[in-house]
């Protein structure tokens, strides 16, 4: 009798799996064969491969297709390869694809700009956009200059004492100090005080515990499970206390800094904010300490890790390509001479070759390699037979596009000339998007560019990087990391220029 039950269970499971994994076949969409339970993300679940690498491999494998059908667990996901369709999703039909559909664990401060949906996101984005206007960025320059001075002094100390230092960690000391100073108006010592709360918190945010890792994997099989699990309180407590402390300190004082915290305090005084939109519906947001702390956390987390990774990848490529480093140095020298030997906000804008090097670094080592969107209503994808069901996730492989030989010849070679205006014009749009694109692109893009370009230019004026015995000629990326991270770190020798 038992064997009959076993056969019945196996049969039910077989028909369930077959029906689920028939989803894309019905629309004639090609894609890799999924495995039961894990879909196409088996290696990701075993932590042998990052999601970025997995999706990039699928992008490469289906070089003839405009779209590819894949499965996360049993959930169908559409990978968009074609730049025209990408434009459709990110720009033209943005109203249907406004949300990312990223599930986060429940906590008092989980309502942040990155994961917010619908009208709530629209209100938050509108209210937070003024933090990064050109005027505000310009006002932040003295704060960034101060952080650069500390950074250069520390590097000088390392060089004089012959101390080796891993480059990503080194850059993160600078970018962490810069974001904490520019967003919260606090001066922290990331150099001698390695036990400062912000550095410890960075480790907590970017090194998830075993249970969080397990939940993340489970969420791939049962999408949304993360939402019903409550995340630990210490990260929430830290940001809530921080926000309360800064608000208290600024109480009854004129708003001089006009930074992130000033803006949030101003909003808090307005109380609740409601909004209505034909696509996003209605929503009311209560601007309280929890909501402010949630935005503080996302600015902090998105703000320093991505920029420090990019800065260290850039120095790595310059160490391996000395001719490019020389050219960058000559340009910095020439432009700063014009500005009385100073690196100003205006002078940075004239460092056009350095900007090309920055863009090429983000092309080759895109720290955030995938864009996520979720379809809001049933949607007929133009030029195809596909009708996306409401809620279907859609993804774009930024690193796949940026390393596609059709758009970037010899993609594995570091070549800043890829960003010469004549070469840029030859490529279709939406093939280089390290900061995403459309109304939901990276809100901190301009801050990231100014912070990284100023930091790198100041560094290269004083120092040169060359490969050391520990430098790898080909980087290996960490399969478990959230953003693109070198598995072995980035090791270079820093030499002081005479
Ligand atoms: C090199 C540095 C950085 C890179 C490569 C990067 C990349 C990205 C990407 C790819 C997205 C998703 C865009 C999309 O879906 O279209 C994003 C979103 C976001 N980034 Fe960045 N980012 C960087 C620095 C920063 C900084 C410095 C901040 C804040 C100070 C920041 C804050 C955010 C936020 C809040 C979002 C969500 C925006 C929204 O949903 O409205 N990022 N970033």
TrEMBL record:
Designated name of the protein: unspecific monooxygenase
InterPro entries reported for this sequence: Cyt_P450, Cyt_P450_CS, Cyt_P450_E_grp-I, Cyt_P450_sf, Insect_CytP450_Detox
Lineage of source species: Eukaryota, Metazoa, Ecdysozoa, Arthropoda, Hexapoda
Family of this protein: Belongs to the cytochrome P450 family.
Subcellular location(s) per record: Endoplasmic reticulum membrane; Microsome membrane
Cofactor(s) needed by this chain: heme
Reactions it catalyzes: an organic molecule + reduced [NADPH--hemoprotein reductase] + O2 = an alcohol + oxidized [NADPH--hemoprotein reductase] + H2O + H(+)
EC numbers on record: 1.14.14.1
Protein source organism: Galleria mellonella
Entry GO MF terms: heme binding; iron ion binding; oxidoreductase activity, acting on paired donors, with incorporation or reduction of molecular oxygen, reduced flavin or flavoprotein as one donor, and incorporation of one atom of oxygen
Key words of the record: Endoplasmic reticulum, Heme, Iron, Membrane, Metal-binding, Microsome, Monooxygenase, Oxidoreductase
């Amino acid at each position: 009798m038992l064997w009959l039950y076993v056969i019945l269970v196996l049969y039910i499971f077989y028909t369930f799996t077959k029906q689920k994994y028939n989803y894309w076949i019905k629309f004639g969409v090609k894609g890799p064969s999924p495995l039961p339970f894990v879909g196409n993300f088996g290696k990701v679940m075993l932590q042998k491969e990052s999601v970025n690498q997995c999706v990039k491999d699928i992008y490469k494998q289906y070089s003839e297709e405009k779209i590819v059908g894949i499965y996360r667990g049993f959930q169908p996901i559409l990978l968009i390869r074609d730049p025209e369709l990408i434009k459709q999703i990110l720009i033209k039909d943005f109203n249907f694809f406004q949300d990312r559909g990223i599930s986060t664990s429940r906590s008092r401060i989980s309502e942040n700009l990155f994961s917010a949906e619908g009208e709530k996101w629209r209100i938050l984005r509108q209210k937070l956009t003024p933090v990064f206007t050109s005027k505000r960025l310009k006002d932040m320059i003295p704060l960034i200059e101060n952080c650069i001075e500390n950074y250069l002094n520390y590097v000088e100390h390392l060089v004089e004492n012959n101390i080796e230092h891993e480059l990503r960690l080194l850059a993160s000391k600078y970018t962490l100090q810069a974001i904490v100073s520019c967003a919260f108006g606090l001066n922290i010592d990331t150099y001698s005080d390695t036990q400062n709360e912000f550095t410890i918190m960075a480790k907590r945010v970017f090194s998830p515990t075993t249970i969080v890792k397990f939940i993340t994997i489970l969420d791939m099989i049962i999408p949304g499970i993360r939402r019903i699990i409550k995340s630990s309180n210490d990260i929430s407590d830290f940001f809530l206390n921080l926000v309360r402390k800064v608000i208290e300190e600024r109480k009854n004082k004129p708003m001089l800094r006009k930074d992130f915290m000033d803006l949030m305090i101003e909003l808090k005084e307005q109380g609740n904010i409601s909004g209505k939109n034909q696509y996003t519906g209605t929503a009311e947001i209560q601007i309280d300490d929890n909501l402010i702390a949630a935005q503080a956390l996302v600015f902090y987390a998105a703000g320093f890790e991505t920029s420090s990774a990019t800065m260290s990848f850039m120095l790595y490529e310059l160490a391996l390509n000395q001719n490019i480093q020389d050219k960058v140095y000559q340009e910095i020298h020439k432009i700063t001479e014009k500005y009385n030997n100073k690196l100003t906000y205006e002078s940075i804008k004239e460092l056009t070759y350095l900007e090309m090097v920055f863009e090429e670094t983000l092309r080759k080592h895109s720290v955030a390699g995938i864009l996520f969107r979720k379809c809001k209503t049933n949607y007929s994808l133009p030029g195809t037979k596909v009708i996306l069901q409401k809620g279907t996730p859609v993804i774009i492989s930024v690193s796949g596009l940026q390393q596609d030989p059709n758009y970037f010849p010899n993609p594995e070679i570091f070549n800043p000339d890829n960003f010469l205006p004549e070469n840029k014009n030859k490529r279709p749009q939406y093939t280089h998007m390290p900061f995403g694109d459309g109304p939901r692109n990276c809100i901190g893009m301009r801050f990231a560019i100014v912070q990284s370009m100023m930091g790198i230019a100041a560094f290269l004026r004083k120092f040169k990087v060359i490969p050391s015995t520990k430098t790898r000629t080909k980087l290996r990326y960490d399969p478990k990391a959230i953003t693109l991270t070198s598995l072995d770190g980035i090791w270079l020798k820093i030499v002081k220029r005479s």
